[in-house]
Structure formats: structure tokens, C-alpha cells
Amino acid sequence: MIKLKTTMLALCLLSLSFMYARSEDAPSGGSDDMYLPPTYQDVHPDRKRMPARHDGIYFRYDYLNRWCIFSNLRSTTTLSVTITDLEGNTRFGTVSSDFPIWQIGLQSGEYFISCTSDTGTTYEGFVYI
Predict the structure, then answer these.
(1) What share of the chain is helix, strand, coil (3-state, %, to 5)?
(2) Domain ranges in the chain?
């Protein structure tokens, strides 16, 4: 009975260590969703305004397919996108609500993304790829 418990415990520990090692070696399919808040041009600059969390868009980079994926576009039909790296290199693109994917190869690092919707709303933020 003790030998069976020891064998089962060793087998569990071995399988857990194998799963952990495999998850460390496997390439990531993409980064987590990153929130890009809207930039408001308020008429009263002294007025405090807290933007709703659902007003922004979400950005995710898929490493395997080299895609920038935008979500939560809602009523936006098209989105003009500008991606700038820390060295000042800028890339321009367009996505739509029908195809919210921009295929572009990006290296790992920090980027500033600015998106302007067809309604005139601007979404900006720093993302880590």
C-alpha cells in the first residue's frame, strides 16, 4: 500500500514538472489584450471626467501569425492605426469592423499605438509586445 502511494506521488510530480517545462519552452500564441482608452477633447478642461472602461478598444498581438488584432470596435466601421516604436519608426495601417486584423511583423518591445475611428474618436496607449 505504501509503495503504491509513493509510486502515484512520484508519477504526479513527474507529470507536473513535465507540464511546467513544456509551458516554459512553448512559444506564446500572442500577448494578452491591452486596453487603449479614448482621448477626449472636453469643452470644460476643469471638469473631471472618468471614462468608462468599455469605451476603449482592445489590442492584442498574435506572434505566430504576426497579426495585430483589434476588438471592441462597436459602431466604428474603420480604424486608422499608427504604431510607433521607441526608436521613432512609424507604421501606418487600417482595420475595419469586418476584418479587425492587420498583418505586420513586430519585434518584442514597447510601442505607442494611436487609432482614429471614422467617427473621429482617438484611442492611444503604450503596449508591450
Answers:
(1) 20, 40, 40
(2) 29-128
CATH topology of domain 29-128: Immunoglobulin-like (2.60.40)
What is the model's pLDDT at position 36? Answer: 86
Rg (CA), the chain: 22
Instruction: List pLDDT tens digits, range 66-111.
Output: 999 999 887 778 999 999 999 999 999 999 989 999 999 999 999 9
Secondary structure (DSSP) of 31-77: PPPEEEPEEP--S-TTS-----GGGSEEEEEETTTTEEEEE--TT-S
Q: What is the dihedral of CA 9, 12, 14, 20, to 10 degrees?
A: -140
Q: What is the pLDDT of residues 9-46, one digit of tens each?
A: 555 554 544 443 333 333 445 557 888 888 854 445 55
Q: If you search the block for the grid coordinates 504604431, which residue do you land on? A: 83
